[in-house]
TrEMBL record:
Belongs to the VPS37 family. InterPro entries: ESCRT_assembly_dom (IPR037202), Helix_hairpin_bin_sf (IPR029012), Mod_r (IPR009851). Keywords: Endosome, Protein transport, Transport. Residues 112-196 form the VPS37 C-terminal domain. GO terms for cellular component: ESCRT I complex. Residues 1-30 are annotated as: Disordered. Pfam families: Mod_r (PF07200). One of its GO terms (biological process) is ubiquitin-dependent protein catabolic process via the multivesicular body sorting pathway. It is found in: Endosome. The keyword rRNA processing does not apply. This is Similar to Vacuolar protein sorting-associated protein 37A acc. no. Q8CHS8. It comes from Pyronema omphalodes (strain CBS 100304).
């Protein structure tokens, strides 16, 4: 008769669970043959060999290590059941954490959208104070001063106003125009502190 089947492989234990060790007793040497089989015919032995339930029953009722093997297998089964219970608990915790993480991710994405909207509003509100807008206003102011100076000259040449008043007004306008042109030139050269 053949030896009993080997024990099932040990389950992989999680990192934080201590794995118990199982050891089956050694098989006797020479191999154990039940006394009942010594008187059986070859046909009976062939029939027994091809009938796993009968072999199993014969092993559990006659083999000397059957009881200790059963206790080892029962212990392994209990350990497997405990590990299964632990895994189910961990699975529940993992599902809860996964749901919580998903909710936090959705909240984060919503906050990112709100931030992008606020950032867009902020840049729109700051746009009139940007470097480009300031330079453009400075250029427009210089052009307006130049046009104003030309208008004053044209009105004076048309006979409108006195010389003294014309000179005073013209000098003030040209002074502002020159100052604005100088500021514009400094701006383009990058000589304005705090902006470039």
């Amino acid at each position: 008769m053949s030896a009993p089947p080997p024990p099932p492989p040990k389950p992989a234990a999680p990192a934080d669970v201590t794995e118990p060790t199982f050891s089956l007793p050694a098989l006797p040497d020479p191999p154990f043959v039940p006394a009942q089989l010594h008187t059986k015919s070859r046909e009976d032995l062939q029939y027994l060999l091809h009938s796993p339930p009968l072999l199993n029953a014969l092993f559990h009722t006659t083999h000397p290590i059957a009881a200790s093997t059963s206790s080892v297998l029962t212990s392994a089964l209990t350990t497997n059941l405990n590990l299964t219970s632990n895994l189910q608990t961990l699975e529940t915790q993992l599902d809860s954490l996964r749901d919580s993480t998903q909710q936090k991710l959705l909240e984060t994405k919503q906050l990112e959208r709100v931030w992008r909207d606020k950032e867009k509003e902020m840049y729109q509100a700051l746009q009139p104070y940007s470097s480009v807008a300031q330079e453009q206003r400075l250029r427009q102011a210089a052009e307006e001063s130049e046009k104003m100076a030309e208008d004053i000259v044209e009105r004076f040449l048309a006979g409108d106003g006195e010389v003294e008043e014309f000179l005073k007004t013209y000098r003030e306008v040209r002074k502002v125009q020159t100052l604005r042109k100088e500021r514009g030139a400094r701006w383009r050269e990058g000589r304005v502190a705090g902006w470039r």
